[in-house]
Amino acid sequence: MKARLAASAALALGIALGASGCSMVTYQATTEHYDASDGVSVDVGHLDLRNVLVVSDDGVDGTLIMTVVNNGTEDVSLDVQFGEGGSEPQTIEVEAGSEVAFGVDAAEGTDEVEPIVLEGIDTLPGAFLPMFFEYSGAEGVEKLIPVLDGRLPEYENLVP
């Protein structure tokens, strides 16, 4: 009788482990960060730059679109440069603990700011524009930023 009870318990435990244990060794895509929109993400020190992209119809001038989240306790002056040789840096002020949306409809609690126009990008839509992001006290990051045109309704008003 005790042997039958022990065998039943062992069988129940084996079935429970077999039915639920697959998640222990199976890849879980939901644990990986990915960019769910057209832009890319860039992390620079305490700053999280989300959905970074450039909108341009002619490949000469472009509008920089992004949301910047400052997770730090100090205000930051973020320098943004583009191109292989590096352009003149444009400085963006981001207060500590704030979110700033450039050229997009901001979520509640996020400051909405006019988009930043980049002159002389020399990158056609469909290509990538090398950009460099840095601020004092953090290591700079270079990232390839997608350049899109204004064919999509959400970008048609953002073409410079």
Topology of helices and strands:
Elements: H1 2-20, H2 22-25, E1 40-44, E2 47-55, E3 61-70, E4 76-82, E5 90-94, E6 99-102, E7 111-113, E8 116-119, E9 128-135, E10 138-148
Parallel strand pairs: 2-10, 6-7
Antiparallel strand pairs: 1-2, 2-3, 3-6, 3-8, 4-5, 4-9, 9-10
Task: Considering the chains and any ligands shown, give keywords for the structure.
160 residues; mainly beta; ten-stranded mixed sheet; 2 helices
Structural write-up:
- The model has no long low-confidence stretch (mean pLDDT 84).
- Strands 1, 2, 3, 4, 5, 6, 7, 8, 9 and 10 form a ten-stranded mixed beta sheet that branches.
- By secondary structure, the chain is mainly beta.
- Strand 1 and strand 2 (47-55) form a beta hairpin.
- 14% of the residues lie in helices and 41% in strands.
- It is elongated and about 85 Å long.
- The N and C termini lie far apart (82 Å).
- It contains two helices and ten strands; from the N terminus they run ααββββββββββ.
